[in-house]
Write a structure and sequence with these properties.
Blueprint lengths: L4 E7 L6 H9 L6 E8 L5 H11 L3 E6 L4 H11 L4 E4 L5 E2 L4 H11 L4 E10 L2 H6 L19 H10 L10 E4 H6 L11 H12 L3 E13 L4 H4 L2 H22 L5 H23 L3 H10 L5 H95 L2 H21 L1
Parallel strand pairs: 1-2, 1-4, 2-3, 6-8
Antiparallel strand pairs: 4-7, 5-8, 6-7
Helix pairs in contact: 6-8, 6-11, 8-10, 10-11, 10-12, 11-13
Length: about 425
Amino acid sequence: MEKKVSVIIPVYNAEKYLSDCLISVLEQTLDSVEIVCVNDGSTDSSQSILEKFEQKYENVNVLCKENGGVSSARNIGITASEGKYIVFLDSDDMLDDPTALKTLFDMAQKDELDELFFDAHVIFENEEVKEKNQNYVTYYKRKKSYPGVFTGPDLFVQLQSSWDFKPSPCLQMIRRGFLLENKISFPEGIVHEDEVFTVQCITLAERAAYLNQPFYGRRVRADSIMTTTKKAESIQGYFYGIRIMLEFAKSNVLGKDDEFISQYYERIRIMLELCGKSYKNESQEEKKEVIARIREEDRPLFLLFVRHAERAERLYDQMQKARKELEHLEYQLETVNAVRSELSDKLEKTYAEKSELNRRLQTTYEEKRQRGDEINRLKKELEEEKRKEEKIKNSYSYKIGKTITYIPRKIRKIARK
């Protein structure tokens, strides 16, 4: 019966954390889980701890090898594993949720995924380590959610364009057959191998998804590879990692969607920039140490890389400066447009007020005209009445009537006297 998940754990001098790491896998609720531990030449008691777990638990498989680095240990683990899906777990880390593997496996199985990404939370060894490594506080938690199933390149474009792509093999469940079919393995003998491996995987994945859950506990400690990698090793790793990614691009990247190609080479540009910055800031003695780590036949190309990196850094700085100036101009333009819009609103309001005043004035003129007409009509009626009154006064009847009414008044006046 095929095992559901193989958890591959490269082990090197991890006696302090190894038991917690193994227990976090053994406590998983998913059945048919295989634990493949590869002891990479540990010199502490890691081997004896592994043997105790192997004797006690039948699903723990311990392999031993001479020290060759985490890449070689993981590659041996891939070859030796039998699970349908693989999860990589570093020996000083742990699975943070007992339902992690079941949740991930069920989703990967249901959606027939090649890759399923998830998040981690950080476990700082102490406050001093936390203070010195503030960049890791939120590093393993992606800012956005990406629901749905995508091709690897489509998901990569979304993640990278939002700066949510995390080049860590430990933050994904991968179908083992997918790795074998595409002959994907970790580049050995260099650091920054994670960058190469994760980019190659997502480039070739036909079905990939992301689950917004922090299932992984990433331990940050003072003496880990993350915090103690020497600059010479780091620069060497960037150089050879870039070469591998450029070679890989010839047959697996060119011809794909333009946006994916752009984001793929953006990853390379970042590595080139870090390589160039690190080398430029080294002393002459340190630069000699870096050169000594580069194969002799590769040194001319390395120096060319460094010069291009320095030039790219200058161009990038200029581009950033130009971008800031453009943002400032855009801000000024937005301000001008806002003022223009405000003035336009005020002008429109003024036009509306003027229109209202004109309407009222027109109404007033109309009322005045109507009142004038009314006054003229009344004047005419009054004149007509006066004319009629004058006519009556001048009439013979009026004069007789006036005389007739006068005599009685006169007689009454005489009588009173």
